[in-house]
Amino acid sequence: SARGLHAFRLHSKLVHLRPTRIERGAGFFQLCYLKKEKGKEEVKRENMAEEGEAPETVNPSWEGERDDMNLPVGEGLATYPNGDTYQGTMKAGLREGSGTYTFANGNASYVGGYKENKKSGKGKFTYPDGATYEGDWEGDLRHGQGTYTYVNGDYYEGEWKDGKKNGSGVYSCKSKGIFLRGEFADGVYTKGELRFVDGTVYNGSFNGMQPKAGEEGTFAFPNGFKVSGKFLAKPAEAAEEEEGEEAKAPELYWT
């Protein structure tokens, strides 16, 4: 019964269950780190800065055939002034078709499709820090279905749009043994389930890694007990007074 279930332990933290409410600060849900994703144009600029693929205005040295305009065409090896290389097909001097782009630092590479010098179709990108994305691309951005695997073993598998998580997907936190399954919008988790390592599941609306205040949700526990209700946000003024500093996220109360 509700009165018989006093608490459950999760990663050495207690969440207290009472007949009419569950009380816990926002930190309870912040078990995986999902950084805020950037806008489409910012993602494009970031890609150019971090991934550094040579733009179409840069002419590479070319080992292969050339067209009537003396531009690289067909299969060959392009070497760019910065030391990057591209082994694959080109058309009118642009990367077109499929190939392998290897960055001069040796820590990043892309293997897959291109259209007019931009990553397009299926491809796998290995980032400088060791993270990888494998899936669909469009206009140099992650777009369609794909899997992004982080250096720590966490991964997101699902839908992408304009370089950000959008649509249905699963985010797995390897280090915590928990995962989210549901809907993402502009890189933010908005609706679905959050499953914990002990089998407890919270299902409802989210604002990132925190349940959305005022929205109906349900806890389902391994012993079969379920409780539905809403999280309400604690007034910011009260939270600041108790914490002694500005709260980074509102404290939520279960009703």
TrEMBL record:
Keywords: Repeat. Residues 43-66, 236-255 are annotated as: Disordered. InterPro entries: MORN (IPR003409). Pfam families: MORN. It comes from the Eukaryota. This is MORN repeat-containing protein 5. It comes from Palpitomonas bilix.
